[in-house]
Amino acid sequence: MPTRLFRSARRDRKRFVVLYVVLVAGLLLAAAAFVWEARIIVRDGAMEEEAFTVLGVANRALDDLQDAETGQRGYLVTGSAEYLQPYDRGVRDVEDAVQRLRQLLATDPPSLEILRRIDSLRESELGELARSIELARAGDRSAAIALVNTGRGKREMDSLRGEFERLRRRWEARRRHAADEARDRLLFGAGALGAFAIFVGGLLVYALLIEQRAFANISAYSEAMDREAGCDPLTGLPNRRRVLAQIDALAARPDSSTLRVALLFMDVDGFKRVNDELGHSAGDAFLRRLAQWLSAVVRRDDMLARVGGDEFVALVTHYVGDEDLRQLARRLIGQVQAVAHAEYADRFDIGLSIGIATFPDRVRHLRQLIDAADAAMYTAKGEDSSTFRFASGANNESEHAVSARKYE
């Protein structure tokens, strides 16, 4: 299992690396694309603003020409010098407006060509206005009116209006194009941002799934390690660590003071001869077979564990009294003798010595069960083979060893 988990962890790590590379690359590409789009949007905004400026200056220039023409007509009709004020202002301002247009249209050759025609018509128109005003000032009003009646000034103003209209259409089209492109760029950017957000969200969800699986693998590996740490590798039974953990769990229960718990500490008699004569491989095989036979005797709710080379422990709960434990001890001893007979045909004198400790009548604390049962086992082992003995109680009373051969 650990090998499978390690392989899965390596695959998940590779997926994380690829995921982060893709995410970083996507972020960089998205940032570059957004910067590029932002520059274009800023450029389009500047172009739109420039178009507004050109349109405004062109309209002002035409208005100034019309003011100059209106002042000239008023002066010729009335002879009042007051009409020369809008004329003078219009002549002055139209020059400033045309100069401003030259600056704005410097990078647009078609617009400059239109402006050259406007400038030529402007000079001709202003020249005609100036001659008519000079004639009127000299007292030759009839000649000034006759000059106006030639219609030349009207034709030039109509031409000027046409050129200004052409210039306005051109820059109005540029303004609309810049506005439309900026809008399209914004819509595209919003769509791309939404798509990228979905993409990143998908990657994050995938990363979350990988992370959850990695945590699940870590948890499974940790549980496997805990199981292996609490498991005897030879027999598959719980080991001493698991027994102590189970005793601690029982001690931590709220009703621990009312529990009845027994621990049977078992040592296989004569097992050393098996190892010495047949070798450790045969001894290990015998212990594995013995673990299976002993497990068949112990109840499902009780715990059978191997705590040493040929030492086993049975942790028993929910028993009625000592007689239940005596019967269990006899069955365990009988199983060992049966295995020895099946494996070696009574070649070896193999038995089982058992020490039994009980809580709360023989020990005051659950953690004392192992030591008390161990001491009782050694007492039994010193008296005869295949016997069991209860640990001394709190009042130092004890039970005599009972030979398992009496119950065969």
Question: Your description of this structure?
Answer:
The chain is 71% helix and 9% strand. The protein has 408 residues and is α+β, with helices and mostly antiparallel strands. The protein folds into two domains: 2-204, Up-down Bundle (Four Helix Bundle (Hemerythrin (Met), subunit A)), CATH 1.20.120.1730; 240-407, Reverse transcriptase/Diguanylate cyclase domain (Alpha-Beta Plaits, 2-Layer Sandwich), CATH 3.30.70. It has a six-stranded mixed sheet with strand order 2-3-1-4-5-6, with helices on both faces. Helix 1 (2-78) runs parallel beside helix 3 and helix 2 (84-104) packs antiparallel against helix 3 (109-137).
Question: Which segments are poorly predicted (pLDDT under 50) over 5 or more consecutive residues?
Answer: 395-408
Number of helices: 10
Count structural domains. Answer: 2
Rounded average pLDDT: 85
Determine the structural class based on helices, strands and strand pairing: alpha+beta
Percent helix: over 70%
CATH class of the largest domain: Mainly Alpha
Gyration radius over CA: 55 Å
CATH T-level topology of the largest domain: Four Helix Bundle (Hemerythrin (Met), subunit A)
Q: What general outline do the C-alpha atoms trace?
A: rod-shaped
| CATH architecture classification of the largest domain | Up-down Bundle
Q: Taking strands numbered 1, 2, ... along the chain, how are they ordered across the largest sheet?
A: 2-3-1-4-5-6
Strand count: 6
Largest sheet: 6 strands, mixed
Distance between the termini: 45 Å
Instruction: Report the β-strand fraction as a percent range.
Output: 5-15%
What sequence of helices (H) and strands (E) makes up the elements? HHHHHHEHHEEHEHEE
